[in-house]
Amino acid sequence: MDRVWRFATAWGLDVLIVVAALESGIGAALRTDADRPDGALLSLEVLLITGLVLVLLARRRFPFLAPAVLWIGCAAASLVDGQLISSQAGIFVAGLFAAVLLGRLRSPVQSRAGLLIVVACSVTVVYDVPNHDPADLFFTPLIFVVGWVVGFALRERDQQAEAAEERALRAERERESAARLAVAEERARMARELHDVVAHAVSVMVLQVGAVRHRLPAGSEEVEALQNVERAGRSALAEMRRLLGALREGDDALELTPHPGLEDLETLAGDVRAAGLDVRLHTGGEPVPLPRSLDLSAYRIVQEGLTNALKHSGARRADVTVDYAPDELRLEVRDDGPGGVRRVAGSGHGLIGIGERVKTYGGDMSTFVATSGGFVLRATIPLDGEHR
Fold first, then answer.
1. Please, which of 8, 140, 292, 301 could form a disulfide with 12 given CB 3.0 to 4.6 Å?
2. For 36-84, what is each residue's pLDDT tens digit?
3. b/e for 13-32, b at 16 or more Cβ within 10 A?
């Protein structure tokens, strides 16, 4: 059935055109009216009327020329034989279809020209019919004008559908571009934070090596080795500043204060409470020391969850849960905002960046609307042996 439907969709009109052409040709050959020609002229008329209908098969390649040729050919044929065109139902249907095609043309100029062709040629065909009714000069062309109007309406609908599709594609490209930008910004931010953390740690090591070196007797091999270590550490710091300094924006000053961590969540909660969102902190398991970068990333995850709840949810309360499991750190930010208003699954740029941060540590993040209402941000970060 699917193949039949696909065939009918792709070639159904072509099949109907062929059927109309055969009906018109056979009908012209079997005419019994007094004006029916004989011999070669009859054969010529049969071929002519059949070919005029079949020309519509070229409508995809010649969207204006094919239906226009049909109508102009019908008018010319009626001048030779007034009964040829008006006596066949197949060519009447083909003419109506051609009028629809002319009305559906994208070019306004061609479409209006098609209307003039339809009106002029249909009046000519009716006028050439022997003993025609004067009322037919109005009502018969009106039928084809209605067909043109139907085609014009279909063109407007097609243009609206194409415009909507183009807007959807453009919005999708903008979302993808914004998502890539959010990931890049978060990676740059993580690199800056990593630079600060590592620079601080290396600075401490260099200072400790220098302190040990000053306590040793001058000229010993240990002093020279420690001098090499100290020199290598200072060189590494300079190289880090030179390579990663470009990641800082012009107005992004060097952070001299310690980066926040999970121990600073109470301060963060206080700031959010002052902004109007009641924040409750919950801790599970036995807290363990975390590497500085991971501790900072966990703080950023909670910070983004609370910021998201404060800006977008319309919530009155948010619950933050930090669970120290034996092999992983679990974070959850749950608010009581109306779920229908919230966007889910990483639709915010901040959530996209946080997802990139979680992925860096091999963790998982999910965002969803809870069945009881409210929005939930949940992240799980594995802890290896060094983290426990």
1. 8
2. 888 888 899 899 999 999 999 999 999 999 999 999 999 999 998 888 8
3. eeeebbebbebbbebbeebe
Please give the tally of structural domains in the chain: 3
237 membership: H or E segment, kind and range = helix 221-244
DSSP 219-235: T-HHHHHHHHHHHHHHH
Structural domain that includes position 69: 2-132
H or E element that contains 15: helix 2-29
Distance (Å, whole) CA 106 – CA 204:
72
Flag whether 144 is in a domain.
no
What is the radius of gyration, based on Cα positions, of the chain? 40
The per-residue pLDDT for range 207-224, each reduced to its tens digit, is: 787 777 777 887 677 777
Let me know if residue 167 belongs to a domain: no
- Taking a C-beta distance cutoff of 8 angstroms, is the pair 283, 379 a contact? no
Q: How far apart are CA 316 and CA 73, in angstroms?
A: 75
Q: Are 299 and 291 in contact (CB under 8 A)?
A: no
Give the end of a domain, one of 132, 165, 185.
Answer: 132
Q: Six-digit token pair at 62? A: 């010649």
Maximum C-alpha span of the chain: 133
| CA-closest candidate to residue 71, choices 106, 33, 18, 113 | 113
Last residue of a domain, one of 132, 167, 200: 132
